[in-house]
Amino acid sequence: MCEPYFDGEVADVWVETVRLSRKEHNCSACGCVIGERTTYTDIRIIYDGSAWMERVCFGCSAASKAFAKEHGSQPSPSGLLVELEECARGDPRSWVKYAPMAEAMIARGGSRED
């Protein structure tokens, strides 16, 4: 198992709600379009005194849950791609698991931000 890049501190509040979109949104993790009348995960986070919301597509939500299951905690969706790439680079066993997830995120989003 790789060492997560994020510090592993747990958010003060992390509430996930599955919603049906009324309008288009972008996934906070991969940037893909979450279309109108599409199911997505709405995540409300409070960490270190700051509050924010992230909307996550089904694919990124599944990747995030898989990462969390193995590591015991999960990064915010906007940091998921970095975590997957770091883990994929750090260990050959992790490469097999996390590189495809990272590649799928990049493909869904259509471009990569650095």
What kind of assembly state do the chains in view correspond to?
single chain
Got a strand count? 5
Low-confidence stretches: none
Number of helices: 3
Query: What's the main sheet like?
Result: 3 strands, antiparallel
State the share of residues found in helices, binned by percent.
25-40%
Overall outline: globular
SSE sequence, one letter per element: EEEEEHHH
Please list the strands of the largest sheet in the order they lie side by side: 1-4-5
Give the integer mean of the pLDDT values: 85
Percentage beta strand: 15-25%
Measured between the Cα atoms of the first and last residue, the distance is 25 Å
Structural class: alpha+beta
* Alpha-carbon Rg, integer: 14 Å
Descriptive account of the structure:
The chain is an alpha+beta fold and 114 residues long. Helices cover 38% and strands 25% of the residues. It is built from three helices and five strands; from the N terminus they run βββββααα. It has a three-stranded antiparallel beta sheet with strand order 1-4-5. The protein has a two-stranded antiparallel ribbon with strand order 2-3. A hairpin with a 2-residue loop joins strand 4 and strand 5. The longest helix has 18 residues. The chain is globular and about 40 Å long.
